[in-house]
Specification:
- This protein is an all-alpha fold.
- It folds into 2 domains: 46 residues; 104 residues, no CATH class.
- It has 7 helices and no strands.
- Helix 2 crosses helix 3, helix 4 runs antiparallel to helix 5 and helix 6 runs antiparallel to helix 7.
C-alpha cells in the first residue's frame, strides 16, 4: 500500500500540535490541562517514551557543560555517546542492561567534565578549590568504575 503510515503521521502531527498548545497553557500556570496532557500521551506513547529518557536528558546536560559554546565538541560528544550506546548495547540488551549502560555513559560524561575542570584548576592555581575538584573527580571515577563492574557482572550472570 503506497500510503503506509500516512494517516498515522497526520494523526501524530495533530496530537503534537494539540500537545504543544496544551503544554503552553500548562507552562503559563494552567494546571487544569494536565488530564488533557495525559490523554494525548496515551494516544501517542512514543511521545512520552522519547521525552522520559532521563539518562539522555542528563547526558545532554553534561555535554552542554563540557562543550560550552564549542559546537564541534558538542556534536562530537553526542556522536561518542551514541557510539557508546551502540557498542555497549549490542544487538539486544535487556532492560537492566540498558539502565546500566545509561549509568555507564552518564558517569563517563561526569568524569570527563571533572577531568577538564581539574586540569583547568591545576594549570591556574593550587588553591583549596583544587582539592574539592579532586575529590569530586575521584568520586566520579569510582562511580564510573562501579558502573563498569556492575554491567560486567550482570552480563556474566545473564543467560545468553
Amino acid at each position: 500500500m503506497p500510503h503506509d503510515g500516512f494517516f498515522e503521521t497526520i494523526e501524530l502531527g495533530r496530537i503534537l500540535d494539540d500537545l504543544k498548545a496544551v503544554v503552553e497553557r500548562a507552562e503559563a500556570g494552567d494546571h487544569s490541562v494536565v488530564p488533557r496532557i495525559r490523554e494525548l500521551l496515551e494516544l501517542a506513547p512514543q511521545i512520552w517514551k522519547n521525552n522520559s529518557d532521563a539518562a539522555r536528558h542528563v547526558g545532554d546536560a553534561w555535554i552542554k557543560l563540557l562543550a560550552a559554546d564549542n559546537l564541534l565538541l558538542r556534536e562530537s560528544l553526542r556522536n561518542a555517546v551514541d557510539a557508546m550506546y551502540a557498542e555497549f548495547g549490542g544487538d539486544d540488551p535487556t532492560p537492566l542492561e540498558r539502565l546500566l549502560i545509561d549509568r555507564l555513559v552518564v558517569s563517563w560524561l561526569q568524569m570527563s567534565f571533572l577531568d577538564a575542570r581539574l586540569s583547568q584548576h591545576h594549570r591556574t592555581t593550587d588553591s583549596p578549590d583544587t582539592t574539592v575538584w579532586q575529590k569530586r573527580h575521584d568520586a566520579a571515577y569510582r562511580r564510573h568504575l562501579e558502573a563498569i563492574r556492575v554491567l560486567a557482572e550482570v552480563r556474566r550472570l545473564l543467560p545468553r
